[in-house]
Amino acid sequence: MFDLTKIRADFPILSRKVNGHPLVYFDNAATSQTPTPVIEVITDYYTRLNANIHRGVHTLSQEATEAYEAARATVQHHFNAAQAHEIILTAGTTESINLIASGYTSLLTKNDDLLISALEHHSNIVPWQMLCERTGAQLKVIPMTEKGTLDMDAFTNLLSSKTALVFVNHVSNALGTVNPIEQIIRQAHEVGAEVLIDGAQACPHIKPDVQALDVDYYVTSAHKLCGPTGVGMLYGKEALLNKLPPYQGGGEMIATVTFEKTTYADLPHKFEAGTPNIAGGIAFGAALDYMNAIGFDQIAAYEAELLDYATKALKQIPGVRIYGEAEEKTAVLSFNVEGIHPYDIGSILDKMGIAVRTGHHCAQPIMDFYQIPGTVRASFSFYNTQEEIDRMVEALQKAILMLQ
């Protein structure tokens, strides 16, 4: 059963007041809130298990190692990776992408093309631009349409035998568009290209099956999934990860070290240099357990109701324009009010206890496409309510009267 009252009681921050008003948290696309069961796991680590993992013979180290590797197994099963060592625990989506971009430096030449979509977050743009600067490879962009979807005919025309890598987000953080990644992966593989999918915005709403997708690399962050900040994961097919060089040097990622030569550890430790975010990794597993106990099908259905409710409400307000009207969307509403800067709206909503995000959302090319400085973005999660949406709409109407 989807028990909203019980779910909301799991999130202590939702009882907070901001500027004298009950908090309405609609910035979930930036980071989700953290439930008590996950917070308790973090506390438990630091009060009962705190020790460095791997190689320690004492009890605390062994217990911490078991908990950390159990969390890796939880991530593996959630994403249906074939092997636990195909899951690399990282600092988050951005580090995962940079790890892959670094690894391909020695594998690409000026004769290679890289395809990227016009809907990407900066973290899935800048590392590839830097890779092209290092290798001479050419970065080509899959254009977007006015509705905020990808031009798939243009994608087909851009693909060629020169295409080495394709990078697309599963869901746009700025617009909520769900991209047709199954088709993208299939077509890319037909020309011999490998595919990295940025799943940071999809994973809170969708449960990806990396084997069914046949994706080469899939990345995400725990803090979008009711987990802590500073931890995430990179999934990669075993054969592909094995051909990449280590990303960083240091402890843990070695097999043997002499001053003459160092040999590297097997997967996954080859890419996990130094002491990791141990508490974060363990809590990542706990967050996935929490969300799976609710059920991703139920989460998706409820969030779709919230999105539909909010979309209809905003369309009733004169002067509001919604950006990103794809048929397949997750619970993100980006909008502007004619003649009013989004920052001004966001500031007034905050005074009324309503947290939304304003600006370009690390997606400046999308804003350039629409010729706007940014948007107001309200992003919903399974612990939000229709009553909160009503409060946002009422506050927005007051803000418009104040600013026009």
Structure commentary:
The protein is an alpha/beta fold. It folds into two domains: 4-30 and 295-403, Aspartate Aminotransferase, domain 1 (Alpha-Beta Complex), CATH 3.90.1150.10; 39-293, Aspartate Aminotransferase, domain 2, CATH 3.40.640.10. Helices cover 40% and strands 17% of the residues. It contains 14 helices and 17 strands. It has helices at residues 4-9, 36-49, 59-79, 93-103, 126-135, 152-158, 181-190, 210-213, 238-243, 278-294, 296-315, 342-351, 364-370, 386-403; strands at residues 17-18, 21-22, 24-25, 87-90, 113-117, 138-142, 163-169, 194-198, 217-221, 232-236, 254-257, 262-264, 320-323, 332-337, 354-355, 357-359, 375-379. The model has no long low-confidence stretch (mean pLDDT 97).
Quick overview:
With 404 residues, the chain is α/β, with parallel strands linked by helices.
